[in-house]
Specification:
alpha+beta; seven-stranded antiparallel β-sheet; five-stranded antiparallel β-sheet; elongated; transport; calcium
């Protein structure tokens, strides 16, 4: 039912107020009666406790009953207002003539709700746990893990989802932005472009996001999305606003039928009446001077002109709508005239086997013919279609008999029928008596047919009427009239004669008023009368049927556009008294009170309502419906909603400024309740209101009411505070830069709102100060939120290690916040980059206080805080705006004493370690040296790498640290070399000079220590090539190099000297066989063996093997072998030179040949070059031994026993 008691909307809205005074007392007043027995309760015995309790209870019950009645009454009033608004909305949807559904609006995405967010988290977690079959590399997995930890698990995203402003597209764009940064940092791969990698990663992301959703669900959701976001049909718009205004379905059906929304003529007439009412209202305002209060008194005349101009514009829009193809000549181009011939009865004069047929024609059109059939069964069912311009055409149907004679020219006509159909004539099939020729036997010949005429769009009604007027139709006569619509505002009453396309007489209905009247005496013809009246003219009409009069009066009432509604005789009223094609019975029966409620709603004049207040209610509920639907609208209406609201404002004269002011209020309410609203939408509405209030509208100067100005100023103040709050909470209002560009638009809107008028820009310094103030507050808010998120408690009871661990975790979060600000929000603040740097410094200064407190409680000998410095320094030194900033410099000042103290302690510890280790050194080989050298070099390298990893940002101190470490390494290395050299000398003194002696392995270890020292020197003792090297440092470094080189040279020399001493011992033994000595003659009688040569050769080979196994660098082994070989050859050469005048003994010759040959061969196998092997000393020795061999061969024959110098360069078997 249409009363409030039947509504489901019982939760009252407090914004609805009655817009018209009630015609009678409210139903609540009628129901205002006390509860039964209340008088008896009040008359109880006074003073008794029971009486007092009863009185209190009675008063309480009355108060509750009163509040209940007020609540019911308020709900009833709100319900009536909603129904009245819905009537206006129905008319806007049914016959729009100002607005169209926009097709250029951005397509809105589906919202992501809490359940969907949780499902997405579970899908990405399943992928990270390897529970999906999506194949991905490590880089993609790292990107997904970062996305999951930093974005999906973020509390800010949960808030954004809760606010209804997050869509799947936002999730995808954030992931895309993250991977673009990651992919750019990857190295180039031949044959694989980075665009291909991005496309592949996005495809895998989509697969993870979709999960195991059924594929058939996707098209269904897409289809519903398209229906909701694109162009809606009238039925869909009706349904939408039923939900918006909480209108029940049967209430919609009642109002739809009562408003005749299916009749375009009625809707156009309603619009004309509304526009006429608005013009009358403008005249009344101008006459009575009841103007709104304007900011200037000069606007009163302009206000009336605005009202008239708006109505004229609507009239022009209505007039521009096409009516039909009819023109000013009033010709009626009928769409179609249809003739259907079924059968003929009463045909008796024709033989049954003869063939008959029918023809049909409309005056002036082509003749059509049916098929030929036997006279025994004259049935056809043939249809013929014609078009005509005659309102009263003449239709002829004839029956013919086919002539069988050879000389017959024409077929015989058996009968005919002539009809004059009209658009209101019967449509069913019926029999018509045919006119037969004279002397025909078929006197009862009848034909069964139907003639239907379609009514053209511009023919609103037609029929026979009696008429008489003063200027036209001056004789009371029955004529055929047609009500023709020439345009939306031009109607004409035309009378036609039969078979004529042009009207005989016509009268335009502009300015006339139609109404029923009593029969006029003296006029013959017509039973019921009505007339049209105009100043100086009266035309009387009459017809024979009351229903026909109702139809004519209703059609002319629509055509005249009069505000006065004709009164029909009560006993002849139909339930739908204004309808063109009434339904005499309604599927929903209405009692008198319900019928009265419906009539009151639809007959209410729109000019009597405050449409500004009604539109505010409509827009509020529409926005509420939009914000609660499944789309992430950000405050934007759907195309269908925009269309209806635009049409309502234009049709009912809602001022644009009021519309946008109320829109701004609602949007700001949502924003203040943490809902996401697009700042571009706020900017658009505010700019419209500002240009209106400041008198700088694009369409010229308009009127501005005081109410609009006051509301605008209030909204401006409120909007400034709202935007300032959003800028301050930018990380939470626009998380991860979503919605895209929203923060930048907010700053632009803030600058626009700060303008005092439309032309004077805001001074840049004022805007900068505001942003600076907001960012200062944002730093404090962000840090406090971060502390709360990290759940860090700064208490004295917390152990120092735990506090330092908390500071590390908090520092990582701080850096993540700053990186996110740079990535997602820096573009919005690009006009003030220094303010973002100040914001970061302020943010870090808050962290600095907690960091200093945590560092102060650390032990003086604890070095666990250095990772904290590295964490921040690695971040700050890469940021050009924060590098060497306030926090960075303070961090350096805080850690300089720690670094210096650490290096001092490390230097002392290393020096002590060298002293103690060398005292206990066993010189067992360890890696490239000994245990002491390896430990020393590792400590020096680790210390330098530690300082290098600090990446100290201040160049001077960084240079100082490096130089100090290099000097320290040089000093430590010098001590190591000297200790090693002393140990080597002491060890070599203990080595004997016999051929049985072997080189100790510890000697090789010492040799390796010096070699490793030389290698480490270039890394530990040389400054970075990019730094300037002064002469003093270069001299000091050269000293270290010289020291190491001299030590190596001394070691090699010492080794070679030791080997040469063994060879000298062998040669001294051979000297006993010199010719002419006493021992020579004695030893000649013995038969010495080759043991001396063999023992020396074995000595050489074993020591060569020891050097090969013990010395780590081949270059130094080769150097030792070269010098060893060279000195050996020189020693033999000198020994032979001293015996140049003596002939060698057989034993000497054989021993020397063996030694020289094997020495040559062994050193050649060790890699000694030929240039070194074939030195001059060797050639001298070779020649001498060859000569001695020849001499010995002459004297002793085969005394050498196969020993010869000839194969000295060939390996012995």
């Amino acid at each position: 039912m249409l009363d409030s008691s039947s509504s489901e909307d019982t939760g009252g809205e407090s914004d609805l107020e009655p817009q018209r005074k009630p015609d009678a007392s409210s139903s609540a007043e009628k129901r205002e009666t006390g509860p039964p027995g209340s008088q008896q309760l009040r008359s109880a015995t006074p003073g008794s406790l029971a009486g007092k309790s009863t009185k209190v209870n009675s008063a309480t019950d009355e108060e509750q009953e009163k509040r209940k009645r007020e609540s019911i009454q308020k709900e009833e009033e709100e319900r009536k207002i909603k129904l009245q608004i819905y009537v206006f909305v129905l008319r806007c949807i049914a016959y729009p003539f100002n607005a169209k559904q926009p097709t250029d609006m951005s397509r809105r995405q589906q919202k992501v709700n809490k359940q969907q967010l949780q499902a997405v988290k579970e899908r990405f977690l399943a992928f990270l746990n390897g529970e999906t079959q999506i194949v991905a590399d490590e880089a993609f997995c790292n990107a997904v893990r970062s996305y999951y930890e930093g974005f999906l698990k973020s509390e800010r995203i949960s808030r954004m989802v809760q606010s209804g402003g997050c869509s799947a597209n936002d999730f995808r764009e954030v992931f895309k932005k993250n991977i673009e940064r990651r992919v750019r940092s990857l190295p180039e791969i031949d044959g694989l472009s980075k665009e291909t990698v991005l496309s592949s990663w996005i495809a895998k992301y989509d697969a993870i996001y979709r999960g195991d959703e059924d594929l058939w669900r996707q098209p269904q959701r897409a289809h519903l999305s398209a229906v909701s976001e694109l162009i809606l049909s009238k039925e869909q718009l009706y349904e939408m606003f039923q939900q918006i205004l909480n209108i029940r379905k049967f209430e919609h059906q009642l109002l739809y039928n009562a408003c005749q929304l299916d009749s375009m003529d009625e809707q156009a007439a309603q619009i004309r009446r509304e526009l006429d009412g608005r013009l009358q209202l403008a005249k009344k305002i101008a006459k009575e001077r009841k103007y709104p209060k304007f900011v200037s008194a000069d606007m009163e005349a302009l206000y009336v002109e605005e009202l008239r101009s708006s109505v004229n514009l609507l009239m022009a829009n209505l007039e521009s709508l096409p009516v039909s193809k009819g023109g000013p000549d009033f010709k009626q181009k009928l769409k179609r005239s249809t003739i259907v011939i079924m059968e003929v009865q009463g045909l008796k004069s024709v033989a049954p086997d003869r063939m008959v047929y029918c023809t049909m024609e409309v005056e002036g059109e082509e003749k059509l013919q049916t098929d030929q059939v036997e006279a025994s069964r004259p049935q056809w069912g043939t249809q013929g279609d014609f078009t005509t311009t005659h309102p009263l055409p003449s239709v002829k149907v004839k029956l013919f008999l086919e002539s069988t004679g050879v000389l017959a020219l024409d077929d015989k006509e058996l009968g005919k029928v002539i009809l004059n159909p009209t658009t209101n004539g019967p449509k069913h099939i019926e029999f018509h008596r045919m006119i037969v020729p004279k002397n025909s036997q078929d006197t009862e010949l009848k034909i069964k047919l139907a003639v239907r005429m379609d009514k053209p769009p511009n023919m609103k009604h037609s029929g026979y009427l009696y008429a008489m007027g003063q200027r036209v139709w001056k004789r009371w006569k029955k004529r055929y009239f047609v009500l023709v619509q020439v345009s939306q505002y031009t109607f004409a009453m035309c009378s036609y004669r039969e078979k004529k396309a042009e009207p005989q007489e016509l009268m335009q209905l502009e300015g006339y008023t139609v109404d029923c009247c009593e029969p006029r005496p003296g006029l013959q013809g017509g039973r019921v009368f009505f007339n049209v009246l105009k100043e100086g003219d009266l035309v009387m009409f009459a017809c024979d049927d009351e229903q026909e009069r109702v139809l004519w009066v209703q059609a002319m009432y629509r055509a005249t556009g009069q505000s006065y509604k004709p009164i029909l005789h009560p006993k002849n009223k139909t339930p739908n008294c204004r309808g063109g094609n009434q339904k005499l019975t309604s599927p929903i029966s209405l009692d008198p009170s319900q019928r009265q409620a419906v009539e009151k709603l639809i007959s209410a004049s729109p000019c009597q309502f405050d449409h500004a207040a009604l539109f505010t209610i409509l827009q509020k509920h529409t926005l509420q419906h939009r914000m609660n639907d499944s789309f992430s609208c950000l405050g934007w209406f759907s195309p269908g909603q925009v269309f209806v609201l635009d049409e309502y404002c234009a049709r009912y004269g809602v001022r644009g400024c009021h519309r946008h002011l109320s829109y701004l209020k609602e949007l700001m309410d949502y924003s203040e309740n943490n809902a996401l609203v697009d700042p571009m939408l706020l900017h658009y509405s505010y700019a419209f209101c500002a240009s209106h209030v400041h008198g700088n509208r694009p369409d010229g100067i308009g009127t501005v009411t005081m109410e609009e100005k006051v509301q605008f100023e209030a909204i401006r103040s409120r909007l400034i505070a709202l935007l300032e709050n959003q800028i301050t909470h930018f990380r939470y209002c626009f998380p991860f830069g979503r919605p895209d560009g929203a923060l930048k638009a907010t700053l632009s809107l803030q600058e626009r709102v700060l303008m005092k008028d439309i032309t004077t820009p805001v001074p840049p310094e004022d805007m900068k100060k505001l942003v600076q103030r907001c960012l200062e507050q944002a730093a404090q808010i962000n840090y406090s939120q971060l502390i709360e998120y990290a759940k860090i408690k700064v208490e004295h009871q917390v152990p120092p290690e735990k506090r330092l661990e908390d500071m590390m975790r908090l520092g990582e979060l701080c850096i993540e916040v700053l990186q996110q600000n740079e990535e997602h929000h820096s573009e919005a603040f690009s006009c003030w980059p220094e303010l973002m740097a100040e914001h970061a410094e302020k943010f870090l200064s808050l962290y600095r206080a907690d960091m200093e407190a945590a560092l102060q409680v650390q032990s003086i000998d604890s070095w666990n805080s250095f990772p904290l410095f590295q964490l921040f320094n690695n971040f700050l030194r890469t940021d050009p705006r924060l590098c060497n900033g306030m926090f960075h410099k303070h961090l350096q000042d805080l850690y300089i004493p720690l670094v210096v103290r650490y290096i001092d302690l490390m230097e002392l510890a290393i020096a002590q370690s060298i002293h103690r280790s060398f005292q206990k050194e066993t010189w067992q080989p360890v890696n490239n040296g000994s245990a002491t050298s390896e430990d020393l070099f590792w400590k020096l390298n680790t210390l330098q790498m530690f300082v290098m990893d600090l990446h100290w940002p201040e160049p001077e101190f960084a240079k100082h640290l490096e130089q100090r470490l290099k000097l320290m390494a040089s000093d430590m290395m010098e001590a190591c070399v000297k200790r090693t050299k002393s140990a080597f000398d002491a060890k070599m003194q203990k080595v004997c000079k016999s051929t049985d002696s072997l080189l100790p392995l510890s000697v090789c270890t010492m040799f390796n220590v010096l070699i490793d020292a030389k290698n480490q020197c270039s890394k530990l003792c040389v400054l970075d090539s990019e730094q300037e090297i002064d002469g003093q440092w270069q001299q000091y470094h050269s000293k270290i190099d010289v020291l190491i080189d001299e030590a190596l040279k001394d070691i090699i020399t010492s080794l070679v000297s030791k080997f040469a001493a063994v060879l000298n011992g062998v040669l001294s033994k051979l000297s006993r066989y010199d010719e002419g000595t006493f021992f020579s003659s004695v030893l000649s009688f013995t038969k010495p063996r080759m043991d001396l040569a063999d023992t020396y050769t074995s000595f050489v080979r074993r020591n060569q093997d020891i050097l090969h196994r013990g010395v780590s660098v081949e270059l130094y082994i080769k150097t030792v072998f070269d010098q060893w070989y060279t000195d050996s050859m020189r020693a033999i050469c000198v020994w032979l030179t001293d015996r140049l005048d003596l002939q060698l003994h057989m034993y000497q010759l054989k021993t020397l040949i063996n030694i020289v040959k094997k020495t040559y061969h062994d050193f050649r196998l060790q890699g000694v070059q030929d240039s070194t092997l074939n030195i001059k000393s060797y050639e001298t020795i070779y020649n001498r031994l060859t000569m001695e061999e020849a001499t010995m061969a002459v004297k002793a024959g085969d005394g050498l026993r196969g020993i010869s110098t000839r194969d000295s360069d060939v390996e012995d078997d």
